[in-house]
Amino acid sequence: MAELESLAELYRRPGFMVKRLHQVATAIFLEECGRYNMTPSQYQALCALQEHPGIDQSELGKLIGQDRSTVSLVVQLLLERGQIRRLVNASDKRRTNLSLSESGVQTLREVASAARHAQDRLLAPLAEEQRAGFLALLHMLLDAHGARIEPGTVITGPVSAKGPRALMRRAPQATPRPSSSRPASKRPARNGADDLK
Question: How confident is the model over 84-129, as pLDDT tens digits?
């Protein structure tokens, strides 16, 4: 039987450290961009729409790595603030396309330097050459797990079932234990909207 994992070992797990680093990054972003009433998800949505105007909500979610419920909340907030517009798709009336409003463009310009400063603060403990290496390692891990988002693929067509769409669409499934007599525990509900408020 395997030894039980200690809390110290848990803290050294890559997933735990990445989660904690994401929490730190979000907190720094909110400190830097708080005066603009902007969260990381909202900023990412504005950036994506600036680069890819006319995409639909589903494509927006895939571009910024957010699930349907989270991107729906983000879009609703940005619509209420008048920072984006929703237009009915001319070729398919059931679909709507999103684009930045003039207010959204202005907001993006105002927030950009604060967002960059947040990133600089996050990476400040690393020397310049360490930053490049750290980011390269993150890219390598995302590539190795088929989780790197390729905007061209999201916009133009389907990707492999093991690619970013599949990873963003559903949570990993637990492997069933063949000899367990205990009932499977319920997984916690995924909110995904932690940085929206």
Answer: 999 987 777 778 899 999 999 999 999 999 999 999 999 999 999 9
SS3 54: coil
- For residue 194, give both structure tokens: 């932690």
Q: Is residue 171 scored above 80 in pLDDT? A: no
Residue whose tokens read 């039987």 = 1
Compute φ and ψ for 87, nearest 5 degrees.
Answer: -125, 145
Between CA 44 and CA 50 the distance in angstroms is 10
Q: Which residues lie closer than 8 Å to 115 by C-beta, 6 or more apart? A: 29, 32, 33, 43
Number of domains in the chain: 1
In the block, residue with structure tokens 């400063």: 117
Residue 47 belongs to a domain = yes
**What pTM was computed for the model?**
0.77
Res 158: pLDDT: 54
- Residue 179's pLDDT is 42
Question: What are the phi and psi torsion angles at 69 (to 5°)?
Answer: -65, -40
Tell me which residue has tokens 């509900």. 189
Alpha carbons 145 and 142: distance in angstroms, whole number: 5
Does 151 map to a domain? no
Question: What are the φ/ψ torsions at residue 11 (nearest 5 degrees)?
Answer: -65, -20
